[in-house]
Design brief:
By secondary structure, the protein is of the alpha/beta class. Helices cover about 30% and strands about 15% of the residues. The protein contains seven helices and six strands. Helix 5 packs across helix 6. The two termini are about 30 Å apart.
């Protein structure tokens, strides 16, 4: 049997005002200008992604809208299963905090490449370590439900980092060294022997 292949796409760029704060798992809109400017990237994704495939997105509108943009660019429209386990990291009470104000709230030293450490737990939120556990459970459920098939999921930077961390069995601290680009394509495969990372941040049209 061929391996189960997960094609993970990070959603399109969110609007500029949202980028100034920790938006985490809140439902912020996409940048409309970027949606238009990046039309060739959606067309390239539509041509690159496997057919047939099962499709999914998270409960947040930015992932659904990104999937719909790929459909408009030429991929036949598909039902979108909602996958809560691959939603972005929750910042809890810190949602909406301007980035420059965050250091005063931290109880641990920030990661060199992320505003929080891998184990910092925002009040009412979750750490990256929690996200890795959650995303890993989601990946295993998807792989069990779609053995030998292709599954495309539009997700988030933090959740895709977590999925890669699960596949590689690396820590939250190491996972935060990964940079996941908007519209970047990450491909994971599940075989009987476990997971492997086939590619990360493949950028359509480049």
């Amino acid at each position: 049997m061929k391996p189960t292949a997960l094609w993970l796409i990070r959603h399109a760029l969110v609007e500029e005002s949202a980028r100034a704060v920790l938006y985490g798992s809140t439902d912020v809109p996409l940048c409309e200008t970027t949606l238009l400017d990046q039309a060739p990237m959606y067309a390239a994704l539509a041509a690159r992604l496997p057919r047939p495939a099962h499709w999914g997105c998270t409960p947040l509108s930015r992932t659904r809208r990104t999937a719909e943009a790929i459909f408009r660019a030429g991929y036949p429209a598909q039902p979108l299963e909602v996958v809560p386990g691959l939603i972005e990291q929750s910042m809890g009470d810190w949602h909406g905090t301007p980035r420059q104000e965050l250091p005063a709230k931290l109880t641990e030293r920030a990661h060199p490449f992320w505003p929080l450490s891998g184990t910092e737990i925002p009040p009412g939120g979750e750490s990256m370590a929690h996200v890795i556990t959650r995303a890993g459970e989601a990946l295993e459920q998807i792989a069990a439900a779609h053995r030998g098939e292709d599954v495309v999921i539009v997700s988030h930077g933090g959740a895709i980092r977590a999925a890669i961390a699960h596949a590689l069995s690396i820590s939250a601290t190491n996972a935060l060294h990964l940079s996941v680009h908007n519209l970047g394509l990450t491909r994971l495969e599940r075989e009987n022997t476990g997971w492997r990372v086939v590619c990360m941040n493949e950028l359509p049209g480049y």
